[in-house]
Structures are given as structure tokens and as C-alpha cells.
């Protein structure tokens, strides 16, 4: 039996349809969700991401601003721009595209974004709210992972979830969100002694380590849900996840492909966060 493929593109399109309807309802009340994206420098991958975010804003009917700054932009100049955007009433969400040039302190920039406009969910206060279970704007990729699982008809509650990877961007927040959904969560990382044994106990296995095809079927419990957050470019130019997709296809119950799995969800969840921020800024209950 081959695994059921979780098609992130289809699920993402369905959510975008819902978000378009929400945006129309807000516009009827005179509210237009607004997103500002800041790009410093010429990183090719970042330019592609920013272009995708711009397109998504147009598709949903948002107000959007893109600030493209040269790589030599000073930290003070960038912080001054963030301060202006924090005070700008038409902007509900601010996203500074990472990575930043080495002379700019990433933490200082993330900390400067108003927590109410932190649509990336990276601000320490947002992270703290996530940990204690208070309302916050959720980090986009981890939130997308949860949506993929739920919209595939899988009940997370009571399941054993194993997360391989402990980054601040994916591993830790996805573990917190799985806990919030009442899963029992184990986090594995490069120092985990018996990773294969632990992974094989998972009903839900989330992999985010940045190593192409590192996780094969020997890590997968038959029938498990396998969510691959990795995206790696192979020597032949093709994209591959952290999971060896072909190897796991017959063992997993559900699996995300790369590309076309988690990827499309990230920008969609960013749009969802921007709508949430716009509602909160206007005192609209969700």
C-alpha cells in the first residue's frame, strides 16, 4: 500500500479561497489587510520568496509594500524603517526577509518589530505566548504543518509525535504546536543517541534538519504521518526534502512531497496571520 500523498498546493489553494472571502468581508467594513515586506541585499532565494509574497498579496486583495534595500544598508537605517512601519496604520504585518547581511544584528531587527505586527511569529514575546498557550501570531511554517495534518483528516490528539530538528524557526515551535493539539511530543536532534528507535515510535513524524534524504523508511513506523519540512538542492539541480520520499512511500500512511508539500503553506499562513493582525487591530473578534 502506497502512502496517501498530502498535497500542500491543493490544501493551500483551499485556504487561500477562504482568506479571499475573509478579506472581502473585511473590505466591506472598510478594512484592508496590509503587509510590508523588507528585503535587504540581493540573496537570490530571498528575492524569489519576496516575489511570491507580493503575488499572494495581490491575489488576496491586500494592501502591500515591498521595501528593497541595498546590502550595504546600515542597521540604524533598517531599524528606523521598522519604526515607521510599526506606526503606519495601513500596515498590519511586517516581515523582514532573513537572512540579513552579516553587519546587521538579526535579533535586534526581530525584536524591533511590534509584536502585534509580527506575522513571522519570531518576536520573543510571540514565542513566549506560543509556549504558554496565549493568543499569538504563529510562526508560518510550523502553523502550516499543523494545518496540513488536520486537513488530511488526521486527529493529532493522543498521538505520539516525533520532531527531528530543534531550530527556533521550525523544530521548537512545531513541537509546541503539536503539544497544544494534545500530542505527546519527543524532540530529536544531532545529539540524540537512539534517534532511529524513537522516530519509529512516531504516529506523526516531522523532519526539519536541512540534510537531503537523511531520513529513510527505517525511521518510519508503518502507517505514520510523515511531514518533510526540508528543502535541499541536489547536485543535479533538483529539489529534495530531508526525507527519502521514494524510500518511505510504501511504509508511511501519509507523506508530504518536496516540492509541493509544506512549502506552499508557509506563504498562505503568512497571509492568514496578516488577516488575523488586521482583525485584532480593528477590535474584531475571531
Automatic annotation (TrEMBL):
Pathway membership: One-carbon metabolism; tetrahydrofolate interconversion
Catalytic activity of the protein: (6R)-5,10-methenyltetrahydrofolate + H2O = (6R)-10-formyltetrahydrofolate + H(+); (6R)-5,10-methylene-5,6,7,8-tetrahydrofolate + NADP(+) = (6R)-5,10-methenyltetrahydrofolate + NADPH
One BP annotation, GO: tetrahydrofolate interconversion
Domain Tetrahydrofolate dehydrogenase/cyclohydrolase catalytic, first and last residues per copy: 6-120
Short name of any one Pfam family annotated for the protein: THF_DHG_CYH_C
Functional description taken from the UniProt entry: Catalyzes the oxidation of 5,10-methylenetetrahydrofolate to 5,10-methenyltetrahydrofolate and then the hydrolysis of 5,10-methenyltetrahydrofolate to 10-formyltetrahydrofolate.
Protein name: Bifunctional protein FolD
Species this chain originates from: Paenibacillus arenilitoris
